[in-house]
Design the sequence.
C-alpha cells in the first residue's frame, strides 16, 4: 500500500452560492394543486373526466341543437328502428324484422327518404336520441341539485356538531343514528307518496336521505381540526365562529367534500332512475333516464334498441362518475391509493 | 358486552317506534281515503268509516295502530278486500328471503374470490380485469342488468325461464341480477384488505418459514382479510332490499318487493305501512346482529366500545 498523505492542501473549499441554494427549482404547489397534478397522471380518471365533460356538454347543448323535437309525436312513425342517413350500417339502416322477414320499416311506414332517427323512435313516434339527450340533462340536474342540498345540509350539520361538541353534538349524533337506521328507500318512497310527484319532490327526497354520510365525515374531521393551532390562533384573534368555519375549516375539509360529492352524484342518478323506473319518479311527459328505461322495458323483447341505448348512457354516466371519484380519492389521499 | 347489547336493543326499539309513528302520520297526510268514490252515499260512508275505525280522533287511531303493530297486525289491505296485511306479507316472504339469501351467499363468495385473486396478482392484467368487473358491477343499475339478463339468457337463448316462480331454475337469473351489487362491493373491499395483509410482517414470516404461496394465502391472509367484510354486510343488505323491488318486478316473483311496488302504485296505504315496518325491522336487526357479531369476531372493537 502506498502511503497517502492527507493534508490541508488536499482539500478545496466548495463554492457555495448563497442565491442558488435558496432558489426553489419547482413551483411550490398547494395541497389542491398537488392533488390535481396526481389526478392528471391517472389516465383512467382523466378519460372518465373527458367523457363526463362531453356528456354534460351534449346534454346542455341539446337545449338549442337537437336532431328532432323530443316531445313531438309522429304517431304514424312509431317504433322505427335506428337509421343514420342513408349509410347502410348494419343495426342503423332502418331495417327490422316483420313477420320473420327483414323489411325496410321506414319505407313501410311511409317516412320520406331525407328523414331519419339515429336511435329510432319510441311507441309514440318520438325521436329516442333527442329524448336521451333531454333525459340525461334532467337526470344530471336532479343529481346535481340533490347533491348540492346534501352538501349544504351535511356540511352545516357536521360542522355545528363537531365544533360545539358536548350536549349539542350528543343530541345531533343520536338524531343521525336514528335517521340512518331507517332504510333510505323507505323514506324516499314515503316522501314521494305524500308530496306531488315531480322534479322538486324527487330532489328533496334524495337530498333528505343523502346528507347523513356527509355530516358524519365532516363532523369527524371538524373534531380533529378544531384543536389545531391555526384554529386556536384564529380564536385568539377574536374571529367569529362563522368566519373560522368559512375561512379555516371548510378549506381544510375541501378534499373530503369533493370526494364525497363525487360519490353522491352517481348514487343520486341511480335513485332517480330507480324511482322513475318503478313508476313513482318523474311524471310521464318529462324524459329522464329512468322514464326512458321504464318505457323501453315495455317493448324490450321485440324492440330492444328502445331500452339498450338509455341503458348504455346511464351505465357509462355512472361508470365515469365512479371512476373519476376513485381517481379523486386516490389523488387527494395518496395513502388510500392501491 | 351485555350492557352494550342491551343499550343497542333499546335504541332499536326507539328507532322502530319513531319509524312507526312517522309512517302513521305520513299516511294521515296522504290525500284521499280508500272510500273517496263520490257514488258512495253518506250513511254508507259513515258506516264504512266506523267499521274501519276512521271515525275516531287521530290520536285514538294512532294508539290503536301502535298496539296493532306490536301484535304484528297492520290492518286490512285496501287492494285485496278483506285480506289482512300481515297475512299478505307473510305469504310472500319466502321467495324474497330465498333469492336474497342466495344472492348474498353467491355475491359474497364470488366477491371474496375475485378480490383475493386481484390482490394476489396485484398490478397485473388479472387485477385489472377483476377491478373492471367490480366497477362495472357497481355502475350498471341492477334493473338494467336484470333486464339484459332476461333478454339474452331467457328470451334469446332459452337457457332459463323468462319469469314466474316455479322451481330452482327460475331463481337463477334473479339471483345473479341481485348478486351483482354485493359481489362488486365485496371484491373491492377484499382486494384493499388483502393487499394490506399480504404486505404485513406475519405474512413475511410465514413465507420465510418456507410455506408455499398457496398455503400462506389460504391459512393466514384469507382469514384475516375476511374479518372486516362483516362490516359491509349491513350496507349490502340495504342494497339487496332496494334491488329486490325491481328485480322481483322484472322476473314476476311473488315476493315482498314486488308487492311493495304494486301497493305503491295502487295507493294501498295499510300494506305500504306494513311493508315499510317490515323492511325497517329487517334492516335494523341485520345492523344490530352485524355489530354484535363483529364484537365477537374482533375483540379490539369490543374494547373500543367498552371504553366509550
Sequence:
Amino acid at each position: 500500500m502506498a502511503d497517502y498523505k492527507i493534508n490541508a492542501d488536499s482539500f478545496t473549499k466548495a463554492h457555495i452560492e448563497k442565491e442558488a441554494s435558496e432558489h426553489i427549482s419547482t413551483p411550490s404547489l398547494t395541497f389542491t394543486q398537488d392533488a390535481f397534478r396526481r389526478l392528471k397522471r391517472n389516465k383512467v380518471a382523466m378519460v372518465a373526466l373527458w367523457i363526463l365533460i362531453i356528456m354534460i356538454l351534449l346534454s346542455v347543448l341539446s337545449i338549442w341543437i337537437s336532431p328532432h323535437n323530443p316531445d313531438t309525436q309522429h304517431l304514424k312513425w312509431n317504433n322505427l328502428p335506428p337509421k343514420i342517413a342513408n349509410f347502410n350500417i348494419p343495426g342503423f339502416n332502418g331495417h327490422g324484422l316483420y313477420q320473420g322477414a327483414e323489411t325496410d320499416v321506414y319505407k313501410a311506414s311511409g317516412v320520406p327518404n331525407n328523414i331519419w332517427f339515429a336511435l329510432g323512435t319510441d311507441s309514440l313516434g318520438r325521436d329516442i336520441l333527442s329524448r336521451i339527450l333531454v333525459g340525461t340533462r334532467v337526470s344530471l340536474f336532479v343529481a346535481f341539485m340533490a347533491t348540492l342540498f346534501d352538501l349544504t345540509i351535511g356540511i352545516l350539520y357536521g360542522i355545528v356538531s363537531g365544533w360545539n361538541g358536548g350536549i349539542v353534538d350528543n343530541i345531533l349524533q343520536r338524531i343521525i343514528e336514528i335517521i340512518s337506521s331507517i332504510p333510505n328507500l323507505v323514506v324516499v318512497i314515503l316522501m314521494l307518496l305524500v308530496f306531488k310527484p315531480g322534479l322538486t319532490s324527487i330532489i328533496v327526497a334524495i337530498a333528505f336521505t343523502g346528507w347523513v354520510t356527509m355530516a358524519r365525515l365532516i363532523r369527524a374531521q371538524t373534531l380533529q381540526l378544531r384543536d389545531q393551532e391555526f384554529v386556536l390562533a384564529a380564536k385568539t384573534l377574536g374571529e367569529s365562529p362563522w368566519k373560522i368555519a368559512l375561512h379555516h375549516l371548510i378549506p381544510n375539509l375541501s378534499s373530503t367534500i369533493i370526494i364525497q360529492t363525487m360519490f353522491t352524484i352517481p348514487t343520486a342518478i341511480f335513485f332517480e332512475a330507480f324511482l322513475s323506473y318503478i313508476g313513482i319518479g318523474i311524471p310521464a311527459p318529462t324524459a329522464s333516464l329512468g322514464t326512458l328505461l321504464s318505457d323501453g322495458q315495455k317493448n324490450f323483447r321485440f324492440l330492444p334498441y328502445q331500452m339498450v341505448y338509455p341503458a348504455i348512457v346511464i351505465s357509462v354516466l355512472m361508470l365515469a362518475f365512479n371512476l373519476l371519484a376513485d381517481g379523486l380519492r386516490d389523488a387527494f389521499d395518496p395513502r388510500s391509493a392501491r | 358486552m351485555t350492557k352494550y347489547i342491551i343499550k343497542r336493543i333499546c335504541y332499536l326499539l326507539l328507532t322502530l317506534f319513531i319509524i312507526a309513528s312517522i309512517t302513521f302520520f305520513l299516511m294521515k297526510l296522504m290525500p284521499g281515503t280508500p272510500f273517496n268514490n263520490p257514488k258512495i252515499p253518506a250513511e254508507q260512508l259513515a258506516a264504512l268509516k266506523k267499521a274501519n275505525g276512521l271515525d275516531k280522533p287521530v290520536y285514538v287511531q294512532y294508539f290503536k295502530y301502535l298496539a296493532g303493530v306490536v301484535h304484528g297486525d297492520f290492518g286490512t289491505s285496501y287492494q285485496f278486500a278483506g285480506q289482512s296485511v300481515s297475512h299478505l306479507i307473510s305469504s310472500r316472504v319466502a321467495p324474497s328471503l330465498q333469492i336474497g339469501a342466495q344472492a348474498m351467499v353467491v355475491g359474497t363468495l364470488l366477491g371474496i374470490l375475485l378480490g383475493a385473486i386481484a390482490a394476489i396478482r396485484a398490478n397485473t392484467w388479472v387485477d385489472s380485469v377483476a377491478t373492471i368487473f367490480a366497477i362495472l358491477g357497481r355502475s350498471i343499475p341492477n334493473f338494467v342488468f336484470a333486464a339484459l339478463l332476461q333478454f339474452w339468457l331467457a328470451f334469446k337463448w332459452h337457457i332459463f325461464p323468462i319469469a314466474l316462480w316455479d322451481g330452482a331454475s327460475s331463481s337463477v337469473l334473479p339471483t345473479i341480477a341481485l348478486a351483482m351489487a354485493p359481489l362488486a362491493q365485496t371484491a373491492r373491499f377484499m382486494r384493499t384488505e388483502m393487499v394490506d395483509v399480504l404486505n404485513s410482517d406475519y405474512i413475511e414470516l410465514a413465507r420465510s418459514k418456507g410455506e408455499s404461496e398457496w398455503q400462506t394465502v389460504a391459512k393466514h391472509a384469507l382469514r384475516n382479510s375476511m374479518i372486516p367484510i362483516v362490516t359491509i354486510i349491513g350496507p349490502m343488505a340495504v342494497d339487496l332490499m332496494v334491488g329486490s323491488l325491481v328485480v322481483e318486478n322484472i322476473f314476476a316473483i311473488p315476493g315482498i318487493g314486488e308487492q311493495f311496488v304494486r301497493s305503491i302504485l295502487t295507493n294501498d296505504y295499510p300494506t305500504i305501512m306494513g311493508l315499510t315496518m317490515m323492511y325497517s325491522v329487517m334492516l335494523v336487526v341485520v345492523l344490530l346482529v352485524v355489530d354484535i357479531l363483529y364484537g365477537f369476531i374482533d375483540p379490539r372493537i369490543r374494547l373500543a366500545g367498552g371504553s366509550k
Remarks:
- Residues 269-297 of chain B form the longest helix (29 residues).
